[in-house]
Amino acid sequence: MNGAQSRNAATAFSIRLRAVSARARFTLGQRGSRARVGTRARSAGKVGDRILFGLCALAGLLVVATLVDVVYQLVNNAMPAIDRFGLGFLWHTRWAPNFSVEGAGALIYGTVVSSIIAIVLATPLGIAIGLYLSMMAPRRVRAVVGPLVEMLAAVPSIIYGFWGLVVLVPFIYHLEPGLHSALGFIPLFGPASTTGISLFTAGIVLTVMILPIISALSRDLFLTVPAELKDGAEALGATRWEVIRGIVLPSTASGVGAAVVLGLGRALGEAIAVSFVIGDVTQIHASGFEPASSVAAEIAAQFESAVNPLHTAAMFYAGLVLVVISLLTSLAARTIAGRFDVGMLTRAS
Q1: What pLDDT sits at residue 88?
Q2: What are the sequence ranges of the domains in the chain?
């Protein structure tokens, strides 16, 4: 009896041992297969990361190469004018291609002043529209007005030129005498022009063109401010204006500055719309109500009908100056925005 029990116990133990061994082999096999799958997944992930890195690096290099090629082409084609006029090209104001005399001083003046007018008018309006759409407007109004403002950025430049010539020029013609009588002590608001075509009109057209850029980007930036910060300030008794002044605007200052610079770049390089309303007069006047010209408008109007190779080289030289102005403006704006952010962080700490 004891022998039979011993054999039965040994048999049961042997069965359990084989079951445990089989389970162990199954578990180890599963772990091994999972390890192999994980290894393959990690390998595939590394390959995907390398491909993504390569594509992003290629895109960045393509942008740099394009910019370098643009500058090279401008410098290479402008060399005859650079050798002929030197740096005096920047402040000489006479533009007479028929006599091989070109100076971009008046063109640079018209470009900078019209862009400044546009930025001075469009920046507060764009920020105000962004604040209204992000913090004050009802949802239904926001859903209608927001897309309409963004659609203004999609309107072709030539349409703005037509609108400025047909609608804005007559309006400015009747508005200029009143501005001169009220603000005539400021040189910018000199005697009214006889046609309404002027530097001031070009600045108004540029204002309308860059307004949707600044307002749309500002609205998106204001919407990124955490609601907890605004709710906490309101819970402490802050008014809506105090929330905007103390939280919303400081936290988005660098982004709003970038939006303004983007609008400024659009204003500096605009040619078609400006050529309709600025007047094509290469002279410098203190009054904004006098006709003027700009670098981009002059190049667009005369490039195809250049009278001689030197004229073509002078327009390339003017284009190079315009690129340098845009780059310097962008760098200055980034520097100012960076210092502003540092100052805000220092005061917050």
Answers
A1: 87
A2: 1-86, 91-348
pLDDT the model gives residue 94? 86
CATH number of 91-348: 1.10.3720.10
3-state SS class at 282: coil
Q: Enumerate residues 6+ apart whose C-beta is below 8 A from 215.
A: 125, 126, 127, 129, 130, 133, 149
Low-confidence ranges of the chain (pLDDT < 70): 1-45, 336-349
Q: Are 108 and 200 in contact (CB under 8 A)?
A: no
Helices (H), the chain: 2-85, 105-131, 139-152, 157-163, 169-183, 199-223, 227-235, 240-243, 249-251, 253-269, 272-277, 295-302, 309-348
Residue in 38, 218, 48, 90 with CA at minimum distance from that of residue 146: 218
> How far does the chain reach from its first CA to its final CA, in angstroms?
88
Contact present, 263 and 122 (Cβ < 8 Å): yes
